[in-house]
Amino acid sequence: MKKKKEEGVPGAQVPETPAVTPGCAGSAPEPPPDPAAEWREKYLRALAELDNYRKRVEREREIARVYATDALLRDVLPVVDDLETALRIDASPDAIREGIALALRHLVNALEAKGMKPIEALGQPFDPRFHEAMGIVPAPGKAPGTVVTELKRGYVFHDRVLRPARVQIAMAPPPRAGEPGQANGVTEEP
User: Fold this and answer.
1) pLDDT per residue over 8-37, tens digit each?
2) DSSP symbol at 156
3) CATH code of the domain occupying 117-170
4) DSSP3 helix / strand / coil % (the chain, rounded to 5)
């Protein structure tokens, strides 16, 4: 006896089993969205965006810091050129002095263009915000507390003091012997 292979009958249709898809009739309904989960997701996204913003700002700040002096350096290069030229040439002391003065003028102009200004101290009343007193000296004809000598020039950058001017100031004249109301340079109140 021969066994028949069981095969589907040609032309016969086999009923398919329906696939269960979410949201279709007959399947379990989706639970409503959890508002706390939605807010948590929004919070996490905002936190990630803030972190990315902080990193970007820090990168930009670092780039700005590195290249902030770029323009100043370009302005100072002619001074370097002047000084290198002065070292290469064989000239008289007067010519060397003149070359150094030219280089200094170039440097001061470049720094002033960036906002740095010298502090004018000579003949001015002593101001501790801009001056550093290095000594008090007798200066006949000058008011006490007036700057009479500038030992080292001071500079400001916009509104900020980079270095105070180092100065000597005029002292009050010593009291004359026999003047009433004074003993050892101290004025006595009557």
Assistant:
1) 555 556 555 555 555 555 566 787 778 888
2) E
3) 2.30.22.10
4) 40, 20, 45
